[in-house]
Structures are given as C-alpha cells and as structure tokens.
Design goal:
Largest sheet: 6 strands, mixed
Main location: cytoplasm
Structural class: alpha+beta
CATH architecture of the largest domain: 2-Layer Sandwich
Helix content: 25-40%
Keywords: ATP-binding, Cell shape, Cytoplasm, Nucleotide-binding
Strand order of the largest sheet: 3-2-1-7-8-17
Bound molecules: adenosine-5'-triphosphate
Strand content: 25-35%
Distance between the termini: 24 Å
Shape: flat
Organism: Zongyangia hominis
CATH class of the largest domain: Alpha Beta
Subunit structure: Forms polymers.
Subcellular location: Cytoplasm
CATH topology of the largest domain: Nucleotidyltransferase, domain 5
Number of helices: 12
Radius of gyration: 20 Å
Order of helices and strands: EEEEEHEHEHEHEEEHEHEEHHHEHEHHE
C-alpha cells in the first residue's frame, strides 16, 4: 500500500482500516477464536466470525468488545496486531495510525489499545473521538462556529454529539445500538414462538424486516431455528409488525438520548442544528425508518450520511489533515497525542 497514514475504526462489531487514497483496505468482524486449553489463537476476524455459534467445545469464540467496552484485553490486542500486520505487514515504512475506540472505554483501556498498535509497528498513534471522526467522514465541516449534530448508531454504542469549532460541545453515549436490537429479536422469538435462534439469524431478521417506523409494505421473513418444546428444527414466517414491537424499547432509548443532547445544547447551536439537520452514521442508522422516527420526535430533519458504515473509518483517515487545526488550542479537539 502506498499511503503511510492509516485510520482505524476499532468498532465493537467491525474493525475497518481505511486509507484516504485507497478507501477501506480491511473490514472484518471484531471476533477472535481461541483454543480453550492452550489459549492459542486459531482465527481472527472473518474466519472467527464464521465459527460463532458453530464451534466445538474446545474452541472459544470471543467478541472482545461486544458491549462497547474492552471485555477481553489480550484478545483485543491480538486482533489489532493481526489486522495491522495483514494490511501493512510487508512494508518497511512504519505508518502513522489514527484510531477511533468505542466511546465507553476507559483511559487505561485506550492506552492498551495504543500500545498494541505501537507494538504492531505503528510509528505514531493518535486517538480520535467517535463523533468527531463520524462528522469528518460524513463530510461535515466542523471547523466553523456552526453547530452540526451527529448520531452514530454502531453495534455496541450510540454516540450523539453536537460539534462546533473543531470540538464537541454536547455529547451523550449509550450502550444501546444495533446489537441490542438483535438481542431483543432473539428474546422475542424465544418468548413468543418458543423458537431458539442464533445471532446471525437475528441480524438477518433485523435487516430484512426490522423497522423503527411503521413500514408501508407487508414484508415478511422466513425464520429457522430450534423449537424449545420439541427440541426439533422449525421454520416460521414473521412479519415486520412483530419485530417492530420487539425492538421498540431500545429504539425509544436512542431517540431519548438524542432529545437529551438537544436539551443540553446551547440555544444558538440548537438554532444551527435546526437549520442544518442531524446526520446519521454507523451501520445501525440503516435500520428502516430510524431517520423518519428521529425527525418526528426531535423536529430536526435527520438524514443518513452517504455510506454510513464507513463514516467513522473514513474520518479517522482524514484526521491527519486536521491535526494542526485540531491541536490549535481549541477546546476538546477529540484528538490526543500519544
Ligand atoms: N441494513 C442494516 N439495517 C439495520 N442494521 C444494520 C444494517 N447493516 C448493519 N447494521 C447493524 O449495524 C451495526 C454495526 O454497525 P457499525 O459497523 O457502524 O458498528 P461498530 O463501529 O462496529 O460499533 P461501535 O460504533 O458500537 O463500536 C450492527 O449491529 C449491524 O447489525
């Protein structure tokens, strides 16, 4: 690869490595598979994800950051090193790396992540806060004294912020996002149909018929699982209305978090946001009707960014162009020197 500046979105669901000139050079699930007895790593990323729910007892498939915090340090470290090696392992020049870590992780955990990147060969590591990266990646101009609002709905966390003058003015982060919706679908299928389904099936149901706002179609999906009463395989058809009801509570929490951010934002900036609208990023923003619901409940026009899944990663790769500005004495730049 030509560029020696790379951006990494260390997401709870997906890790994306992005180069400004080349786009996404790696996109793999945040999953590691290890042998239980020896703790030897057998697969990382895509290969490990395929083993989820299907691995024999001797293997443990770990999602080291599933709740938006680092639950398994060493697996996180292995994963970062593996992905960095995969992308620039053969290169003699050491890259500068700009990293976006889940917003709920602590300073100590961030430090561990930075150290992993350094030991994987990074020359210099910068950390950037998720809403700043999302805004840059969505093409928003955050350098002016003009408020912009970002709602980043990822897998583990939803990060909401109002930005102005290169910094975050108001922010709120909740541990409710796309993966929580999957959990609710699994619970619903169990409680109402006595049907046990796995995570991958739940995710498929969510993307095919899930919605945050009533749909105008009759969408249905065929669901396969194991009946808890008979212990036998079963398939049933489920319509969107059922899933809409099952995921309503976590969606309401996301809407409530957005309302809270607006309530805490200085009035002049609320005026800007009202005029500019809010921008949705992250994979979870693709849930059918989430933009419509947010617009209705906040009275601020919500629009989904272009290619929302890559916004944070693209933003991390763009941050190198903003280092001067972001370091230039503005409060809360979101970027810290290692
Ligand atoms: N079309 C879709 N409809 C609904 N949800 C979707 C769609 N595509 C992806 N998702 C969901 O988006 C989430 C992943 O989003 P993303 O890759 O932005 O998260 P992440 O960066 O890994 O997580 P975080 O920001 O919490 O660290 C998953 O829950 C996934 O199921």
């Amino acid at each position: 690869m030509s560029s020696m500046d790379i951006g990494i979105d260390l997401g709870t669901t997906t890790v994306i490595i992005y180069c400004k000139d080349e786009g996404a050079v790696l996109s793999e699930p945040s999953v590691v598979a290890v042998k239980r007895k020896t703790e030897e790593v057998v697969a990382v990323g895509e290969e490990a994800y395929k083993m989820l729910g299907k691995a024999p007892d001797r293997l443990e498939v770990i999602k080291p950051m599933s709740d938006g915090v680092i639950s398994d340090y060493s697996a996180t470290e292995v994963m970062i090193k593996f992905f960095l090696q995969k992308v620039f392992g053969g290169s003699i020049l050491k890259p500068r790396v700009c990293l976006c870590v889940p917003s709920q992780i602590t300073g100590v955990e961030s430090r561990a992540v930075v150290d992993s990147a350094v030991s994987a060969g990074a020359r210099k590591v910068y950390l950037i806060e998720e809403p700043v990266a999302a805004a840059l990646g969505a093409g928003l101009d955050i350098t002016h004294p003009n408020g912009t609002m970002i709602v980043d709905v990822g897998g583990g966390t939803t990060d909401i912020a109002v930005l102005s003058l290169n910094g975050i003015v108001t922010k709120h982060s909740i541990k409710v996002a796309g993966n929580k919706l999957d959990d609710m679908i699994i619970k619903h299928m169990k409680d109402f149909h006595s049907l046990l389904i796995g995570e991958q099936t739940a995710r498929q149901i969510k993307t095919e018929v899930g919605c945050a706002y009533p749909r105008e179609d009759d969408k249905e999906v065929l669901v396969r699982g194991r009946n808890l009463l008979t212990g036998l395989p079963q398939q049933i058809t489920v319509g969107w209305k059922e899933i809409y009801g099952a995921i309503k509570d976590p969606i309401d929490e996301i809407v409530h978090a957005a309302q809270q951010v607006i309530e805490r934002t200085p009035p002049e900036l609320v005026g800007d946001v009202f005029e500019n609208g809010m921008v949705l990023t992250g994979g979870g923003s693709l849930l059918h009707g989430l933009d419509t619901l947010l617009t209705e409940k906040t009275r601020i026009q919500a629009r989904i960014a272009d290619d929302p899944i890559h916004c944070v990663a693209r933003g991390t790769s763009m941050a190198f162009d903003y280092l001067d500005k972001l370091y230039d004495g503005f409060v809360d730049t979101g970027i810290k020197m290692k």
